[in-house]
Amino acid sequence: MLLGLNNVEVVYDRVFMAVTGVSLQVPGQGIVALLGANGAGKSTTLKAVSGLLKPERGLVTKGTLTFDGRDVTGLAPAERVRLGIVHVLEGRRVFPHLTPMENLMAATTMHGDRRAAAHRAEEVMERFPRLRQRARSEAGYLSGGEQQMLAIGRALMTAPRLIMLDEPSLGLAPHLVDEIFDTIAHIAAETGMGVLLVEQNADAALAIAAHGYLIENGRVVMSGPAAELRDNPDIRDFYLGGG
Ligand code: ATP
């Protein structure tokens, strides 16, 4: 397994337990979906993995995180990025006044080699023809779907081994939702990385995932192969709108 969470607990403000002993695993290849309603603890789980909890507010108070067999529970966020863990936060946080290419290059300046970065940015652009078409626009003027693609593209600049996506379909028009999920499926199939996908859009996520976990109130209440979860009557009733 590439990523393992073993009984991880996250407490906010010393009192509120947002994640209550979550255990889950993500292999080095393919997509794992993390599903659940608003406030279930999905984003908090991702932040525990990337280390992006604000230390003065949220703390991992129990459990361990392993990445490629190594205990990363206490590592700084930048060290986790260096190991290959990248987290695309909810809400398409691109630099609005930079072009798509400048956004991609901004992800790598600290790593030095500009020529290698430019080459990598070209590869990322190949994957997102829409971004190439909008090459001269400031990112703030791109559509929601294009900004989401740019946020994913920027994450790919670091050549990650694990990419975590927080609600990539949030707020997008239905045809763009399909396009984003297609793109994620392609990235997972072609680049050989593990994907941990947080979604409220359970049907679309389970359509491209191999495995899924359902969390409620900070704990895993169900997990299994994606096809089984799609057929599960409880999941259908609560998360897929019945049928
Ligand atoms: P959503 O889909 O709405 O983002 P989620 O499943 O990702 O939901 P989290 O954002 O992980 O849920 O939140 C889990 C719980 O922790 C919620 O009750 C939320 O109010 C609380 N919470 C989240 N972030 C903080 C914070 N920085 N400080 C205090 N409580 C927080």
Automatic annotation (TrEMBL):
Database matches in SUPFAM superfamilies: P-loop containing nucleoside triphosphate hydrolases (SSF52540)
Keywords in alphabetical order: Amino-acid transport, ATP-binding, Nucleotide-binding, Plasmid, Transport
Keyword Iron: no
BP GO terms, sorted: L-amino acid transport
Lineage top rank: taxon: Bacteria
The keyword ATP-binding appears for this protein: yes
ABC transporter domain boundaries: 3-242
Protein name: ABC transporter related protein
Record organism: Tistrella mobilis (strain KA081020-065)
